[in-house]
UniProtKB/TrEMBL annotation:
This is Kinesin light chain. It comes from Diplogelasinospora grovesii. Pfam families: TPR_10, TPR_12. The keyword Transmembrane helix applies. It comes from the Eukaryota. InterPro entries: AB_hydrolase_fold, NLR-like, P-loop_NTPase, TPR-like_helical_dom_sf. The keyword Glycoprotein does not apply. Keywords: Membrane, Transmembrane, Transmembrane helix. Coiled coil: none annotated. The chain crosses the membrane at residues 6-22.
Length: 945
C-alpha cells in the first residue's frame, strides 16, 4: 500500500512537472483569436519587396513558405546583430531593432531585374485555437494562390518558380507539388515551372521528438512535430525531376526548448537524417545555427552567405538569358574622348521622369554641327546595352534616311508586316514606320525598357515629330543642331547643350591620334597639341580630322610643327581636305558639316535672310558683336548723308532701319534668332548683350563670298557700317563708355580700295578715316589715330587744297595727337601753320582761327613755355570779349585758362583775382550748380588756402 502511494505521489509530481513544462513552452505562443496577438500580415501570397518589377517571361519568382506555429509578421525576422547601412530598419515600439532578410537583404543581393519575391502566409497555429486542416488542403491552397495571383498574364506563366520552405512549410510545398503533378492538370504547369527548392530544416522523416511517443508529443507539441500531421508523411517520397534542384539545409546546433530556473533543455529539433535525403540533384548543407536560426538572419553572416550562394545558383540556372536587341549601325571612333561633365549631365537627365510626356524619359543633345553630339549618343548606347533591351538608331538626316532606318529596325525586331509597301505614302503612314512604332507602344510594365536614338534631327519640315517613338517603357535621345528640337517631344524633354571641347579634352583627343600616353608625353608635344586644338577652336570634328591627318606621320613633333605652319598659310585647303573619305564613320568635314543647315536656313527664311546676316557678322573683327553696334550704325547712317549711306546695299540695311529716331531691330532679331537656334551664333549677356560665333563658323561663312571682288565689296560694306557707328557715338556724349567695346571692331583702312568699275571712293575713304581716326583719338590710341590723320591730311590737301577749312581741321587734329604723344615741336609747328593760314583765309576773329590759337596756347603751356602761352591766350580771350562779350561762356573758358597760366607763372594774386572774377561771372550767367561754376569754385578755394 505504501508502495502504491509512493508510485501515485510520484505520478502526480511527474504530471505536475509535465504540466509546468507544457505551460512554459506554450504560454508565449500567440492566438489569432486575441486582437493584439493576431498577425497583422495578410494570408496568401504577399509581395515581399517593393523593388519587385513587373513579370517578364524568363524571369524567376521565389516564394517563401513559413513553418508550423509561425506568425507571418515575425517568422523571417531577426534581431539585427550587425547593422548595415543598406538595410531598412524595422523598429518595434519596445525600441528593439529587427531586420527581415527576405525583404531587406535579398532585393539588393539578387539580380533585381529578373526576380520577384513573395511570402506565402497561412494559418499554422497549433495550440488551443489551431485549425485541424489536413496537409493536402494546405497544399491545394498554395497552388490556388500561385495560379490566381502570379500566373495570370502570359509572361508570368513563362517564369520559373523557386520555393524556400522552413520546417513544416517544406511539407506543404512537397504536398502541393505532388498534387499539382499528379492530381490537377490545370495546375501541372506550376510543378513543371518549379526549378528549385531550398528546404530549411524540413522534417522529411519526422521530428526527433517522435521518439517520445505520440502521447508525450501530443502533450508538448514541439516546433514542427505535430504528430497528427506527421503521421501522414511517413511514406512520403521526395519529388524527383531532372530539372529540379534541391538543397536541404539542416541545423548543427541544438535548440533550447525551455529553461526553468536552473533546469534547461536543449535538443536538435530536426536531425540531419530527417532533414536530408539523397538524390542525383539533391545537395545537403549544414549550417552552424539552431532550428530557429535557419530562417532568421540578423546580418549578412556566413550562414546567410551560404544560403544566398545556393539561391543565386538556382536563380542563375533557372532564368532564361535575355536577348538584348541592339540595332545601331555605327560605332564610336577609336579615338573617342570622354567628356565627363556632359556624360554626367546626360546620365542624370535621362533619369528624370516626365509623367505627361509621350515617353517617360527623353533628352536632346543640341549644339553646333561637329561638336560631337552623335559620338556622345553612340557612346551612351554602347555603355547602356545591358540597361535597355532594345536600342534602336534612327538617322533623321533626311526623310529617305528615316524610312531606311525604320526598315532596318523592323527587320531586327522581327516584325512581319514591314515589307508591305505603300506607293508614295506619307512618312507617318509608311508600313515599317508604323510597325516599329506600334511595337514600341505595345511594350508594357512586364517588358524591359527600350531606347531609341534619333540622330541628326535638324529638319522638322517633313513631319519628323509625327514619327517620334512613344511608349510607357521608352527613352528617347535626340541629337540636333536645332535649339528647338526638344519640342519634338512635348511636355517633357530635357536639354543638354554640347559645346566645344575643353582645352584638356582637345589636347587628349589629338594625343590619342598620335598614339601618345597623356601621362608620359613630352611637354613639347603636349604644347603643340594644345596649340593645334586652340587654332581649331576646340571643335571636336575639326580636331578629330586634324588628328587623323597629323597621325599619319611617324614623328609627332615634326608633324605637329608642320601642321601649325600649314594652317597659317593654307588654312582653307586643310579645312576643306577630304583625304579620309570612306575611312571614317562620318563623311562630314569642317567644310561640309554645316552645309545642310546653311541651305535649310536660306531656303526656309528667305524673307529675313539669316544667311546674309551670318555672312555679314562673319566680317566683324571683334569676338563679341554687341546689339549696341547695330543701334549706333542704324542712327549713324541717317546722319552721314545719303551718298555714304547708300554705299551699304538694301539687303543689309534691312537689319538696321530707323523708325522715329530709333533702331527698329525686328528684322535683325528675327534673323539672329534663327542663327542662334542652330547654334551658328551664341548669345552673350551682360551690360552690352550681343552674339558671338565659333571661329570656324566665321571662316565657313566667309567662304560663301568666293570672288576677290565680292570679298572687297563685303569689306567695304562692313567698313561703312562701323564708320556710321563711330560717327554716331561721337554725337552721343552720354555713352562714351561703350567706345572701348566698339574699338575692337574697327577695320584696317590704311590701304585704299581699288574698284574695277572706276568709282572714285577717295572722298568716302576720307570720311571713314577721319571718323575712325577721331574714335582712336578719343580712346587714347594715339599711334593708330596719327596714321589715319596723316592720310586724311594728305588726301584733303590733294582733293580740297591746303587752305580748305576741312584741310586745316585735319592738320589741327594731327597736331592735337602729336601734342598728346608729347611730340611738342611737331604739334607746335602744325598749329602755327593752321593759325597763320586761318588768319589769312578766315580772318583773325573767325572761330576756327581762335580755336587754332587756343590749341597752340595749350601746346605751349604743356611745354612750360608760359610767356608764349600767355601771349596767345590773352589774345584769344580779348578777341572773345570783343566778339561775344565779357560774360559769354566761351570768353569765360579762356579767362579760366589764362588764370591757370598765371598760376604756373607764379602770379598767384593775379591768378586768384582772375578766377574769382570768372567764378562770379559764371554764377551770374550759368548758375550756382553748373559744372563750370563748380570747377571755378573748387580752384578758387584751393588757391585761397
Amino acid at each position: 500500500m505504501a508502495q502504491a502511494e509512493i508510485i501515485l505521489s510520484l505520478s502526480v509530481v511527474a504530471l505536475s512537472i509535465a504540466f509546468i513544462i507544457y505551460d512554459q513552452v506554450t504560454k508565449r505562443i500567440p492566438t489569432r483569436l486575441v486582437d493584439h496577438q493576431a498577425p497583422r500580415g495578410r494570408y496568401g501570397l504577399v509581395e515581399a519587396s517593393t523593388h519587385s518589377l513587373p513579370a517578364r517571361a524568363g524571369g524567376v519568382d521565389i516564394i517563401f513558405v513559413h513553418g508550423l506555429g509561425s506568425n507571418p509578421d515575425t517568422t523571417w525576422r531577426a534581431t539585427r546583430r550587425a547593422p548595415t547601412p543598406d538595410a531598412r530598419e524595422d523598429v518595434r515600439p519596445d525600441g528593439e531593432r529587427y531586420v527581415t532578410w527576405v525583404s531587406d537583404f535579398l532585393p539588393e543581393d539578387l539580380p533585381r531585374d529578373d526576380v520577384r519575391l513573395f511570402f506565402y502566409n497561412y494559418d499554422s497555429y497549433w495550440k488551443r485555437d489551431a485549425l485541424h486542416t489536413r496537409l493536402f488542403n494546405l497544399g491545394d491552397a498554395l497552388l490556388e494562390q500561385i495560379h490566381d495571383k502570379i500566373c495570370v498574364a502570359e509572361a508570368e506563366r513563362g517564369r520559373a518558380l523557386i520555393f524556400v520552405a522552413y520546417s513544416y512549410g517544406g511539407l506543404v510545398v512537397k504536398q502541393a507539388l505532388v498534387r499539382a503533378q499528379l492530381a490537377n492538370p490545370k495546375l501541372r504547369n506550376i510543378a513543371e515551372r518549379t526549378k528549385g527548392i531550398l528546404f530549411l530544416g524540413t522534417p522529411h522523416r519526422g521530428s526527433s521528438f517522435s521518439t517520445w511517443g505520440r502521447g508525450v508529443a501530443q502533450a508538448l507539441l514541439p516546433l514542427g512535430s505535430n504528430p497528427s500531421l506527421l503521421a501522414e508523411l511517413e511514406a512520403f517520397v521526395a519529388i524527383d525531376r531532372e530539372d529540379l534542384r534541391v538543397f536541404n539545409f539542416y541545423e548543427q546546433r541544438p535548440t533550447r526548448i525551455f529553461r526553468l530556473w536552473f533546469l534547461q533543455w536543449e535538443k536538435l529539433c530536426v536531425r540531419e537524417p530527417s532533414a536530408t535525403y539523397e538524390g542525383p540533384r539533391v545537395r545537403n548543407v549544414g549550417l552552424s545555427v539552431d532550428h530557429k536560426g535557419l530562417n532568421k538572419f540578423g546580418s549578412r553572416d556566413e550562414s546567410y552567405a551560404i544560403l544566398l550562394s545556393k539561391l543565386r545558383e538556382i536563380v542563375t540556372s533557372s532564368a532564361c538569358p535575355r536577348k538584348h536587341l541592339y540595332t545601331v549601325p555605327l560605332e564610336t571612333v577609336p579615338t573617342y574622348t570622354q567628356r565627363d561633365r556632359l556624360w554626367e549631365e546626360l546620365e542624370a537627365k535621362l533619369q528624370i521622369r516626365h509623367e505627361k510626356a509621350s515617353v517617360p524619359y527623353a533628352a536632346v543633345l543640341y549644339g553646333l554641327g561637329g561638336a560631337g553630339k552623335s559620338q556622345l549618343a553612340l557612346k551612351y548606347a554602347e555603355d547602356k546595352r545591358d540597361r535597355y533591351n532594345t536600342i534602336l538608331w534612327i538617322d533623321a538626316a533626311s526623310e529617305e534616311a528615316v524610312r531606311s532606318s525604320f526598315e532596318r529596325c523592323a527587320v531586327a525586331v522581327g516584325l512581319p508586316d514591314h515589307r508591305i509597301k505603300q506607293q508614295e505614302s506619307a512618312l507617318e503612314d509608311d508600313s515599317a514606320v508604323q510597325a516599329v512604332l506600334r511595337w514600341l507602344r505595345a511594350r508594357t510594365e512586364a517588358d524591359e525598357e527600350w531606347l531609341v536614338i534619333v540622330d541628326n534631327a535638324d529638319d522638322f519640315t517633313w513631319g519628323l515629330q509625327k514619327i517620334m517613338p512613344k511608349g510607357a517603357r521608352g527613352s528617347v535621345l535626340v541629337t540636333s543642331q536645332d535649339e528647338l528640337s526638344h519640342r519634338l517631344i512635348p511636355q517633357g524633354c530635357e536639354q543638354i547643350r554640347v559645346g566645344d571641347l575643353s582645352p584638356l579634352e582637345g589636347t587628349t583627343l589629338l594625343l590619342q591620334h598620335l598614339g601618345c600616353d597623356p601621362d608620359s608625353v613630352s611637354e613639347e608635344v603636349r604644347t603643340s597639341c594644345s596649340e593645334v586644338a586652340q587654332q581649331l577652336g576646340y571643335l571636336a570634328l575639326a580636331i578629330d580630322l586634324a588628328g587623323a591627318y597629323i597621325g599619319n606621320d611617324a614623328v609627332p613633333e615634326q608633324a605637329l610643327t608642320q601642321y601649325l605652319k600649314d594652317f597659317k598659310r593654307h588654312r582653307d585647303e586643310l579645312l576643306q581636305m577630304d583625304v579620309f573619305r570612306g575611312l571614317r564613320p562620318t563623311e562630314k568635314t569642317v567644310w561640309t558639316v554645316w552645309d545642310t543647315t546653311l541651305q535649310k536656313i536660306a531656303k526656309d527664311h528667305k524673307e529675313c535672310r539669316p544667311d546674309l546676316l551670318l555672312t555679314f557678322l562673319a566680317h566683324f573683327k571683334g569676338a563679341v558683336i554687341q546689339d549696341e553696334v547695330f543701334r549706333l550704325a542704324a542712327l549713324g547712317t541717317t546722319t552721314i548723308g545719303d551718298a555714304l549711306a547708300s554705299e551699304i546695299p538694301l539687303d543689309l540695311q534691312q537689319f538696321f532701319p530707323v523708325d522715329r529716331e530709333e533702331w527698329d531691330k525686328f528684322r535683325y532679331r528675327q534673323s539672329r534668332d534663327v542663327l542662334l537656334r542652330y547654334s551658328l551664333l551664341k548669345r552673350v549677356d551682360g551690360t552690352w548683350p550681343g552674339v558671338t560665333m565659333h571661329g570656324l563658323v566665321q571662316w565657313r561663312a566667309r567662304q560663301t563670298v568666293q570672288t576677290d571682288q565680292m570679298q572687297q565689296q563685303w569689306r567695304w560694306w562692313y567698313t561703312m557700317f562701323i564708320a556710321a557707328a563711330c560717327h554716331q557715338i561721337k554725337e552721343e556724349d552720354h555713352q562714351p563708355e561703350f567706345r572701348r567695346h566698339l574699338m575692337v571692331h574697327l577695320p584696317d583702312v590704311s590701304v585704299s580700295e581699288v574698284w574695277d568699275d572706276g568709282r572714285d571712293v577717295e572722298m568716302h575713304e576720307l570720311f571713314i578715316r577721319k571718323t575712325l581716326g577721331r574714335a582712336y583719338y578719343d580712346e587714347g590710341w594715339w599711334e593708330e589715330a596719327k596714321k589715319l590723320q596723316v592720310q586724311v591730311m594728305k588726301t584733303s590737301k590733294t582733293k580740297l587744297g591746303p587752305d580748305h577749312p576741312d584741310t586745316l581741321t585735319s592738320i589741327n587734329n594731327l597736331a592735337s595727337t602729336y601734342r598728346d604723344q608729347g611730340r611738342w615741336e611737331e604739334a607746335k609747328k602744325l598749329q602755327v601753320q593752321v593759325m597763320k593760314t586761318s588768319k589769312t583765309k578766315l580772318g583773325p576773329d573767325h572761330p576756327n582761327t581762335l580755336m587754332s590759337m587756343n590749341n597752340l596756347a595749350s601746346t605751349l603751356w604743356k611745354q612750360g613755355r608760359w610767356e608764349e602761352a600767355e601771349k596767345v591766350q590773352v589774345q584769344v580771350m580779348e578777341t572773345y570779349k570783343a566778339k561775344l562779350g565779357a560774360d559769354h561762356p566761351d570768353t569765360l573758358i579762356h579767362m579760366h585758362n589764362l588764370a591757370f597760366i598765371w598760376k604756373h607763372q607764379g602770379r598767384h594774386t593775379d591768378a586768384l583775382a582772375l578766377v574769382k572774377s570768372c567764378l562770379q561771372a559764371r554764377q551770374r550767367v550759368l548758375g550756382l550748380n553748373h559744372p563750370d561754376t563748380l570747377s571755378s569754385l573748387v580752384f578758387m578755394e584751393e588757391w585761397s588756402g
